[in-house]
Amino acid sequence: MGRVAYVNGRFVRHADAAVHIEDRGYQFADGVYEVWAVFGGRLADSPGHFARLKRSLGELRISAPMTDAALTIVLNETLRRNRISDGMIYLQVNRGVAPRDHPFPNPEVSPSIVITAKAIDLAASEARAAKGVGVVSVAENRWGRCDIKTVGLLPNVLAKQTAREAGAVEAWFVDDLGLVTEGASSNAWIVDADGVLRTRDIQANILRGVTRNSVIRLMADSGITLDERAFTLEEAKSAREAFITGAGSLILPVVRIDGAIVGDGVPGPVAKRLRALYIGEASVRAA
Ligand code: PLP
């Protein structure tokens, strides 16, 4: 069997998977999503993603489509049916199908749920990390609730396109004060000129990255000092290292910011070490 998706209670051929035209995810981006990295067929950082899903749904007052235990079974079955060993799994839950009208449907309708999975080539991902990637800066123009992992991603889409057209992989949003908030699909980090690891604190208007949390846990005994403090674009350009974290990028060294070379222009030791620790731990858990 080829690629399979889970749509509202059924596994269907990916090519035939469809939602209703009155689906509120389609009409209003009235929904949330999660993405898990998958190693050896196992969900990475699962509790963190489940906790964030619950929080995102709660903030938007969308009912959970099923229990965590049932969702775990469906996610794992999606991985199995797609024969995913290393890859990514995407889940969207939205407010459901109802005649188009902005307020919540009354009475409430069942939430819609879609799950897709895809394999990634870990060797290609490693090769990209070994070279490092470029990022470009864009003006922060998102709404004030970036802590909710909503499917409303138009600013992120435009930012990513700007990055792609500039030959970069990620875009960093920069706020009115000149401070980097986060990437279009990742959290942003530097090892500053003093050797301090810095990333924006989660009280800021950013997504509370699950990979970000794992990195903080992994570096706890490393002797590296962490300061959850915002940095400017200029500080990033003159940093010793920069990198991004996310379920898609894992830990990915950044070697160019707006064309300026960061550090020695090659992935730095902290990013390399954290990436190895992260993938090593996830792989051991999957074994
Ligand atoms: N920030 C944004 C805007 C994202 O879209 C993502 C991931 O998609 C992240 C940060 C990283 O979050 P996580 O590590 O949970 O994947």
What's the topology here?
Elements: E1 4-7, E2 10-13, H1 24-28, E3 31-39, E4 42-43, H2 46-60, H3 68-81, E5 87-94, E6 112-119, H4 122-131, E7 133-139, H5 154-165, E8 170-174, E9 180-183, E10 187-191, E11 197-199, H6 210-218, E12 226-227, H7 233-237, E13 241-246, E14 250-257, E15 260-261, H8 269-286
Parallel strand pairs: 7-8, 7-14, 11-12
Antiparallel strand pairs: 1-2, 1-6, 3-4, 3-5, 5-6, 8-9, 10-11, 10-13, 13-14, 14-15
In angstroms, what is the radius of gyration?
Answer: 19 Å
- Described by its quaternary structure, the protein is single chain
**Tally of helical segments:** 8
Largest sheet: 9 strands, mixed
In whole angstroms, the N-to-C terminal distance is 25 Å
Report the sheet-strand fraction: 25-35%
CATH superfamily grouping of the largest domain:
D-amino Acid Aminotransferase, subunit A, domain 2
Poorly predicted regions: none
Topology-level CATH name of the largest domain: D-amino Acid Aminotransferase, Chain A, domain 2
Instruction: Give me the CATH architecture of the largest domain, please.
Output: Alpha-Beta Barrel
Shape: globular
Per CATH, the class of the largest domain reads Alpha Beta
Structural class of the secondary elements? alpha+beta
Small molecules held by this entry: pyridoxal-5'-phosphate
